[in-house]
Structure to design on (744 residues):
């Protein structure tokens, strides 16, 4: 019986429940007298247990069962939990999370749950000696039909929540099914239908020559049916739906959304071609069709992009737990706030964001926030504050991590940077920008000692590399004694961007508009030099120049004397990119790009132009 | 031709109510029974198109009556009248051969829906 097809769903749903567990544990820790958190934790663990048992993950189910025992006791007791009990539940949640991951990876044997399980049992024994002894081993739910050798189509039914006497309705459905063919492997067993607690979810196998549509019609004709799923032969029974009932959402594999995105990309490209042809034809009928196709494909594109949008809480929700753990480990007091949880980002970007944020948050707790004693000495509250905030800007999302800690000692960083030759020998102060570049040097750390939490110097360079790879930027602001703030700006979606199309030689290049500050004309503005580099003077500011022609070693005819300069801006930094000509703005579909060895690190991807010819996308971060 | 109905319930109130609901919908009430054994007897005599059957009745309960009736007429169309909390009994009645059930307090629309399903 192949259960693997349900593994992903199991993993996704278990993670949601475990994430909820962590949130609720934190809440319980803050408000130990509140009765709600323990009930929620109990239900989440209970759900994971049921799903794991259905999947045949015995260790996961067993651990969840022991947690559930303890939680059930705490829930009934109504007493605020002891700190050690809470810490045990945190550890157990972690162990359960690991066990779930390992089980799905096919390595459940590697899940080390014995230690935590024993602790849970000991805790239970302290609370209720008799119960602990009598604690029954976890009994899996009734064998699903597949395991009793049942054959035929798998039928899964959910009755309406408001249906009365659900067991009676279920029995009628079984009778109805029996009129269509042979019914086997009813789960739960018909005896369970007689219980008042029966929730109206059940499954069975039906051997019949009737079509799926006929089966569904017959079952629905019995009444009070919310959902019927008619499977093929040899499909396994799974929990029909997660607890909580009638969601209007469906889960879609991200790969599907990716391929939809690719397809719409091709459609956008084809649309461009159609528009060109329509312009040549000058036929109003063709024009009309081209306009309609444009409008429809734009709407379709917007819908698909929207479907990929995911609120940031899906990643942020695990951070309160992380910050708490790190702070505890380092004996620091930290109030952690999250703002703008509902801001949305493209799923692909959000998935990549977790790691850099973890690094920066750890840094904030470890290096930013001072110990309570040190804070008191400086006249600060003993409890430090870290704020993780997401804010939607015009065409990007800014995510900031701000602490009210000791700030970064520029003099110390400068001294070290000078020793290591990372800055010019005559540098006297570091600007925010230089500071960030120095801190982001792989291996650069000013931490006096390397703690287990961070300080290995990996934090900022990892974050910076990742953010740049996503087409974003990162900035730092820091003030000694007041705190440090990292601000990351990310495009809302990776898939489709507006870009300026520039010509150099016979090639076209795309520059994402997000980073285009303005354009100027080379040959018509004042020139100067800056640190030995050619630069132009733009409204009293010196902007260094890059000639794309030189950079890319393009030969051919000499470029026109007067030609465009595209000014790219990232944070405070600006660079002018000199090109041969400008071909206007266009929406481009970003395709992944595996740069061959030796390629200049100035391309972030490729796109296909309206005429079917590919063009490279310039990476602003690599040029500025 | 309208369908004929036998209404079985030990409470006059319930019998009246069910009869009214069904009569208003155009059914012909051909008989009433107060006990299970009466229901079995009247079914044999009247051969109604539909029976409404209370679960708890004196003398012979509704479920036993269903068994008896179905034994003689496997196609008998019996609609159980149950109350909340009678989950196990309803399941048993269906296993015995009842075709559907309604739950007290009755809503005319739900009773008629169930009747349609049974006769359909």
């Amino acid at each position: 019986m192949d259960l693997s097809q349900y593994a992903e769903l199991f993993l996704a749903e278990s993670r949601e429940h475990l994430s909820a567990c962590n949130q609720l544990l934190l809440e319980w820790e803050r408000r130990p007298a509140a009765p709600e958190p323990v009930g929620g934790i109990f239900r989440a663990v209970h759900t994971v247990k049921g799903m794991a048992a259905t999947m045949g993950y015995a260790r996961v189910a067993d651990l969840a069962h022991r947690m559930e025992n303890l939680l059930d006791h705490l829930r009934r007791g109504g007493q605020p939990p002891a700190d050690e009990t809470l810490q045990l539940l945190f550890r157990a949640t972690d162990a359960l999370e690991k066990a779930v991951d390992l089980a799905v990876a096919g390595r459940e044997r590697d899940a080390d749950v014995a230690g935590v399980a024993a602790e849970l049992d000991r805790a239970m024994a302290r609370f209720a000696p008799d119960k602990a002894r009598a604690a029954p081993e976890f009994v899996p739910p009734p064998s699903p039909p597949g395991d009793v050798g049942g054959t035929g189509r798998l039928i899964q039914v959910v009755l309406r929540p408001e249906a009365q006497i659900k067991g009676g309705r279920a029995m009628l459905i079984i009778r109805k099914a029996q009129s269509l063919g042979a019914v086997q492997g009813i789960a739960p067993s018909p005896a369970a239908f007689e219980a008042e607690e029966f929730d109206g979810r059940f499954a069975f196998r039906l051997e019949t020559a009737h079509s799926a549509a006929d089966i569904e019609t017959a079952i629905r004709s019995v009444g009070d049916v919310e959902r019927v799923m008619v499977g093929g032969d040899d499909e396994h029974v799974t929990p029909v739906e997660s607890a909580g009932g009638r969601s209007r959402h469906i889960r879609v594999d991200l790969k599907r959304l990716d391929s939809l995105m690719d397809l719409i990309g091709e459609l956008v490209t084809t649309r461009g071609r159609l528009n060109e042809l329509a312009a040549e034809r000058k036929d109003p009928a063709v024009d009309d069709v081209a306009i309609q196709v444009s409008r429809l494909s734009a709407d379709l594109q917007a819908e698909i992009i929207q479907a990929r949008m995911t609120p940031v809480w899906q990643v942020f929700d695990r951070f309160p737990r992380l910050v708490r753990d790190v702070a505890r480990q380092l004996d620091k007091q930290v109030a952690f706030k999250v703002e703008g949880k509902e801001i949305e980002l493209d799923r692909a970007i959000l998935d990549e964001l977790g790691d850099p944020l973890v690094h920066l948050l750890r840094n904030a707790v470890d290096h930013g926030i001072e110990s309570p004693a040190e804070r008191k000495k400086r006249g600060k509250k003993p409890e430090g504050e870290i704020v993780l905030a997401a804010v939607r800007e015009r065409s990007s999302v800014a995510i900031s991590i701000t602490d009210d800690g000791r700030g970064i000692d520029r003099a110390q960083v400068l001294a070290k940077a000078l020793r290591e030759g990372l800055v010019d020998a005559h540098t006297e102060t570091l600007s925010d920008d230089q500071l960030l570049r120095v801190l982001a040097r792989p291996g650069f750390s000013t931490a006096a000692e390397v703690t287990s939490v961070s300080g290995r110097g990996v934090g900022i360079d990892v974050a910076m590399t990742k953010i740049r790879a996503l087409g974003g930027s990162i900035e730092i602001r820091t003030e000694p004694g007041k705190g440090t703030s990292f601000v990351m700006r990310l495009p809302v979606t990776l898939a489709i961007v507006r870009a300026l199309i520039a010509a150099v030689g016979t090639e076209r290049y795309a520059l994402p508009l997000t980073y285009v500050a303005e354009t100027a004309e080379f040959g018509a503005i004042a020139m100067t030099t800056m640190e030995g580099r050619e630069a132009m003077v733009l409204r009293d500011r010196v902007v260094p120049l890059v000639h794309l022609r030189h950079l890319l070693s393009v030969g051919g005819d000499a470029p026109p004397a007067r030609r465009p300069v595209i000014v790219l801006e990232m944070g405070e930094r600006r660079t002018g990119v000199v090109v041969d000509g400008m071909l206007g703005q266009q929406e481009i579909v970003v395709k992944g790009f595996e740069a061959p060895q030796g390629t200049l690190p100035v391309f972030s991807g490729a796109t296909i132009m309206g005429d079917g010819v590919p063009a490279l996308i310039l990476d602003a971060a690599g040029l500025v | 031709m309208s369908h004929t109905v036998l209404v079985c319930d030990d409470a006059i109130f319930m019998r009246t109510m069910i009869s009214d609901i069904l009569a208003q919908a155009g059914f012909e009430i051909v008989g009433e029974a107060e006990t299970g054994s009466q229901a079995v007897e009247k079914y044999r005599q009247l051969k109604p198109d539909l029976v409404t059957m209370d679960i708890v009745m004196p003398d012979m309960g509704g479920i036993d009556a269903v068994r008896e009736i179905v034994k003689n007429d496997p196609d008998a169309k019996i609609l159980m009248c149950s109350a909340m909390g009678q989950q196990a009994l309803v399941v048993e009645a269906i296993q015995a051969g009842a075709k559907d059930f309604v739950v007290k307090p009755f809503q005319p629309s739900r009773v008629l829906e169930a009747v349609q399903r049974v006769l359909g």
